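Exercise 7.
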Amino acid sequence: MHAESHSQACNTPATDALPAVAALPPGARWRELLCAGQAIRFMLLRSHRRSIGFRICEDGLRITAPVWASLKQIDDAVQTKAAWITRKLSDWQNRHAALAAEPDCWRAGSHFPYLGRPVRIVLAAPALYFSSHTDSLAAISPAPPDSLYLPLPVHADSASICKAVQVWLQQRARELFSLRIGHFERRTGLRVRHWRLSAANTRWGSCSSDGRIMLNWKLIHCAPDIIDYVIAHEMAHLREMNHSAAFWHEVGQIMPTYEQARTRLKQHDPRRLPSFDPSLNKE
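Solution. The predicted structure, written as tokens, is:
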């Protein structure tokens, strides 16, 4: 990534603590600058890195700055890279707008995410099946061009295709989440009293004080380690109903490599995953 010079001045004061559209990482905040009348909004994080970093992610522009950098230094860096930032944010917004406006994403040959990888839809199959059959979450992650074969006619409408994919995904979610819960129970001695799928718009999982866990079925779109992290997170609440240091120690006991998956999960938003029929979300 390289800086591009420009002649516009950023001289309007920045605003802090803007309302966020997605959950903020710990210690992060939103800021906004006006550069020649155009707002540049970004998530600001602090770290022990040596320089100011710029990244376009699922939330838009994310800037990671050294703990010693002043807000003026950060704003000046944004000014220096404003041309690059504006172009990249425009591309990002166009991609999201195109996805939101796509009228026929459920059709033969299109793809949907499954365990972090794209899966192709194939119609006119004699029976519903997936081109990779295993029962182990660790071994089931598909590699393109794996396909889901649906017993639907080649002229099936998008609603029928969407319904068939949703039913299959929810079935896989029940099977795989159950396998991983059992895996962690055997490793830790913890016992989940009851668990079920949820279809929450903004939450990946929850755990009640009586030991009941809910897992968002759309996690099945995510990579296996992300699924494991969410399950480990909720199971840690069986011992610590908070997010204290003791809680995160418990998460680490359940899944020692959770931090990387946790970081990757923050780049996902359930609201940006494929849309499905809400009437099929009931258990």
